[in-house]
Design goal:
The chain is α+β, with helices and mostly antiparallel strands. The protein is built from 3 helices and 17 strands. It is globular and about 65 Å long.
Length: about 260
């Protein structure tokens, strides 16, 4: 079985995994630590590309719920509330944390709108930050330059990134890739990580999601896994992910 993470997060938590916490008091303690550290949450709607950034606002032991911040986008909040499951990922003192929730509802917290959900029944607590996924800038997108062969000629197509982790990337493709079926391999792909460096990687397509744009055109979001990335490459990716995290935290706190 291929253990390389997909760009869309896995909605399952293995309760038999030694890194999984199932004790209610321990889960509450971890969530309270996330709240105290003001760690950013990456909230994904299961089986969807919908995602948002949030923070833990409170952990209510009496109602057995946790409360988190809403998105600035009303439609995203609605999709999160309507979701069968949400997958939440964050980091705490270099520990990767993931849990799954359902039953998200709107609520108020200190006079402001918020979201709440029942406490998760299990929580993955794993020290493996190389697979921590983060969205990349939209206004000045990072481009992935992919050599492709078409009509017996070699050319390079540049696709904007949507997210990155130590396990792979998500890119947007407006019908430029000649082949995007699962398992397709593209070698010698180059990505310039701003203020960090250039990485050259082999990509394997993991999944493809078609998106209909307001113009009526179709765009593809392509999830790709890195194939045997080198240690120096992973170090550069980790540095860049850390840089983006610091920028997000600064922006969240009003410094960006």
């Amino acid at each position: 079985m291929d253990n390389t993470p997909d760009t869309l997060p896995n909605p399952n938590i293995d309760v038999n995994d030694p890194h999984t916490i199932t004790a209610e008091l321990e889960i509450q303690s971890v969530l309270r630590n996330i709240q105290r550290q003001r760690s950013l949450l990456h909230v994904h709607v299961s089986n969807s590309i919908t995602a948002m950034i949030s923070t833990v606002l409170d952990v209510d032991r009496n109602s057995n719920q946790w409360i988190f911040d809403i998105s600035a986008d009303a439609s995203t909040n609605q999709r999160v509330q309507s979701a069968n499951k949400i997958i939440v990922e964050t980091s705490l003192e270099k520990i990767h944390i993931k849990f799954v929730c359902s039953g998200v509802k709107p609520c108020d917290f200190e006079g402001k709108p918020a979201l709440c959900a029942p406490l998760p029944q299990a929580l993955s607590y794993l020290q493996r930050r190389d697979f921590y996924r983060i969205n990349t800038p939209i206004t000045h997108p990072i481009m992935c330059r992919i050599p492709v062969r078409e009509h017996q000629k070699l050319k390079v197509v540049s696709l904007p990134l949507g997210d990155i982790s130590g396990g792979g990337i998500g890119v947007f493709d407006d019908h430029h890739l000649p082949e995007r079926s699962m398992g397709t391999i593209y070698d010698n792909c180059e990505i310039t990580l701003p203020d960090v460096g250039v990485i050259t990687v082999t990509l394997r397509i993991q999944h493809v999601v078609a998106q209909e744009l307001p113009s009526g055109k179709t765009r593809f979001r392509v999830g790709c896994a890195f194939v045997r990335p080198s240690g120096p490459t992973l170090n550069l990716i980790q540095r860049y992910v850390g840089k983006l995290e610091r920028e997000l935290i600064a922006k969240r706190r009003g410094f960006g």
